[in-house]
Amino acid sequence: MTRDHLRPRGVTSMTGLPDELPPDFRAFHQLHRAAYLHRAEVYLGNRSDAEEAVDEAFVQLARSWTRVLAMENPAAYAWKVMKHRAIDVARARKRGPCLVDNATFETAALRDAIDPIAMLEESLNLYQAIKKLPERQQDVVILLHCRGYTVAQTATHLGITEAGVRSTARYARRRLQQLLETTEGNNADDLAH
After folding, report:
1. Are residues 126 and 85 in the same domain?
2. Distance of CA 86 to the CA centre of its chain
């Protein structure tokens, strides 16, 4: 992989990057790029913006790769860089996160549902609840449950342990149950009035 492969849209200068990137960086890029694109696409709402954000993140990582490798947890740092680049792209487009818009309509359950309208309402409630989770719990839920990554893959991409993923997923499930019960209670109250 040459540095031209990492040139995001709108970035004209790749100053500071070597002509040929180190093998460990290329391996890191290959391992993480798809998951980063999935998460950025959920946040940004479209593939093109997600690719721009992820490519910008990898350019930033490549420029400081030696320092990144010296960190205690390079994967966790890189995940944060990617998320910050996604936020930057959203701000540049004067938009907020698109979690509900994007993820709701991608669920296999919705496509196969007997009652798609009821499933859509359920799905909307779920994604509204996911938006209310703490950031780490959102990341775990999106990778693990919405995108179908395994516990091991999720741990690798987030730079946390498998036990950390399982624990975070448990807390997220409990919180989602609470949020969804509250939503169902509010919906029942609305129907009674």
Report:
1. no
2. 9
d(CA 40, CA 85): 9
127-157 b/e (C-beta count within 10 Å ≥ 16 → b): bebbeebeeebbbbbbbbbbbebebebbbbb
* pTM as predicted: 0.74
Q: Is residue 1 part of a domain?
A: no
DSSP state of 45: S
Question: What HEC string does 87-146 produce?
Answer: HHHHHHCCCCCCHHHHHHCCCHHHHHCCCHHHHHHHHHHHHHHHHCCCHHHHHHHHHHHH
Mean pLDDT across the chain: 80
- Report which residue type is found at 98: C
43 pLDDT band (50/70/90 cuts)?
A: confident
Domain span at 167: 108-191
Please report, to the nearest 10 degrees, the dihedral formed by the alpha carbons of residues 18, 23, 27, 28 taken in order: -50
Q: Which two tokens mark 124?
A: 């909307």
Of 53, 68, 93, the residue that ends a domain is 93
